[in-house]
Design a protein that fits this description.
Radius of gyration: 20 Å
Distance between the termini: 45 Å
Number of strands: 28
Number of domains: 2
Protein name: PHTB1_N domain-containing protein
InterPro entries: PHTB1_N_dom (IPR028073), PTHB1 (IPR026511)
Low-confidence stretches: 8-15, 17-59
Pfam families: PHTB1_N
Strand order of the largest sheet: 10-2-1-11
Structural class: mainly beta
Number of helices: 1
Oligomer: single chain
Largest sheet: 4 strands, antiparallel
Strand content: over 45%
């Protein structure tokens, strides 16, 4: 079998990707497995709402950056191994800014400053790392100078990269399968999920153990009783720092100390989660959940505020500004 590869590219910002070889004014973006749909607030000359559609082959992951005229640009990757950079709010008829064949299916994308110096507008490979087994997902971890990449494999092995260097590689606990993971800034902890449980560990402790075989002691563990599908952190200053966890039939909101704040019971299986800032000071968490029944549910904390029917099963949601 071939091995998984983690690559970083320079293009206005550094874009980190996991490639699978073994492996109101804002626009609401909904991503289906094959179709990317943009719902615009504009209207055409006849007064009808304008819908823009972009077709991608087996779309897997999306991300966005803000590097041109203070607008967001959209990054799309999929099983065809092509990284596409779109500028939906640009003046050109064709929104595609760049198309870069990577040569391997892309399963995740992150944007950040992973190297001290960045390139200009040219997309070029800065470094790549060969994985010992299939890569599953990744998250960014802050450091004094640049962002670090923490990659999780299908065997639940965590590998930390800083630039072109591998800092450590270790498995925090035996598990049958991996799940979502995220760095929690308020508590400086790594939150992982697998086998129906949520675990939190101080990242300094994890990094200090490095490649040793010493057992990791978690700060806390929470029994979800369900499979975690997605995870997001809420650290807006006016809101209590929280961990929002989407499971198949539940949404849990926990404090950074592992105490449940509230819970939502879903009637259908959840597929995607987005926690977003509404632009106004509030004490409530705003979140959007997609389900297998092709519904898009908007909540304020655990109160349903709005729902909509989509044309397909949503696999990822982002809120961006292209104006």
């Amino acid at each position: 079998m071939m091995q998984g590869v983690v690559s970083a590219f320079s293009a206005l910002a550094t874009v980190a990707m996991i490639e699978e070889c073994l492996m109101e004014s804002a626009l609401l973006k909904m991503y289906y497995s094959r179709l990317l749909q943009t719902i615009e607030t504009e209207r055409n000359l006849s007064g009808e709402q304008v819908l823009e559609f972009h077709l991608f082959s087996f779309l897997v992951t999306i991300e966005y950056q803000s590097r041109i005229a203070w607008k967001n640009q959209l990054l799309v990757g999929g099983e065809d191994g092509v990284l596409t950079v779109l500028d939906p709010g640009g003046s050109e008829k064709d929104p595609v800014l760049l198309e870069q064949p990577i040569g391997r299916p892309i399963i995740d994308i992150l944007v950040g400053e992973f190297l001290p110096s960045l390139g200009s507008t040219k997309l070029e490979e800065m470094f790549s790392h060969q994985m010992q087994e299939h890569a599953y997902n990744m998250c960014t971890v802050p450091s004094p100078t640049v962002h670090q990449l923490l990659v999780q494999s299908v065997g639940c092995v965590l590998t930390l990269f800083q630039g072109d260097q591998c800092v450590f590689s270790r498995s925090p606990l035996p598990a049958l399968h991996p799940g979502p993971l995220s760095y929690c800034y308020p508590s400086s902890s790594l939150v992982t999920s697998n086998e129906g449980h949520l675990h939190s560990v101080k990242f300094s402790l994890l990094a200090g153990l490095g490649n040793t075989g010493k057992r990791v002691t978690f700060d806390w563990t929470f029994n979800l009783g369900d499979t975690c599908v997605d995870m997001a952190m809420e650290d807006t200053p006016t809101i209590q720092a929280s961990i929002v966890c989407l499971c198949r039939y539940n949404v849990f909101c926990l404090t950074t100390g592992g105490t449940v704040r509230w819970q939502i019971r879903l009637e259908r299986v959840g597929t995607a989660l987005m926690v977003y800032n509404g632009g106004k000071e509030t004490l409530s968490i705003r979140l959007c959940v997609a389900t297998t029944s092709n519904n898009l549910l908007v909540f304020m904390d655990n109160k349903l505020m709005w729902n909509s029917q989509t044309e397909g099963t949503v696999v990822a949601i982002k809120l961006s500004n292209y104006k």
